[in-house]
Amino acid sequence: MRNTTLTCLLLLTATILVAQSRNDRQTILTTLDRQTADWNAGNIKAFMNGYWESDSLMFVGKNGITYGYQNTYQNYLKRYPDRATMGTLKFDILHLSFPGKGVAFVVGKWHLTRPEAGDVGGHYTLLWRKMNGKWVVVCDHTS
């Protein structure tokens, strides 16, 4: 009887964790879809929703490391000052995993279609953390 109870408890826990992972996965994918729509609407401020609003946010790009939400936002504004440079964004998710409790890791490809400025693209890795019940990007490495 004791083994049966333990087995049932373990199965229940595993089922809850799998369901939670599915919900978390969908939340992250929905956030990325919303960010894509915000970018394609020319709204960098709305696009930033999904990043950790902290001085500890880390963005790693071709020019090195930028720390902080506000600094990251300002860099986006400088690099993409108008709709022509922003183009149309497309994300392709190559990998999404949950290596630990409250942590997610995303690897993908990005592409900007820019008829006037020329297309650009590359890869990215995003480290997400669930903070206060909300998934946020704490580190973005885009190249």
Automatic annotation (TrEMBL):
Signal peptide segment: 1-19
Domain DUF4440: 33-137
Alphabetic keyword roster: Signal
Descriptive protein name: DUF4440 domain-containing protein
Keyword Transmembrane helix: no
Native species: Persicitalea jodogahamensis
Domain of life: Bacteria
InterPro entries, alphabetized: DUF4440, NTF2-like_dom_sf
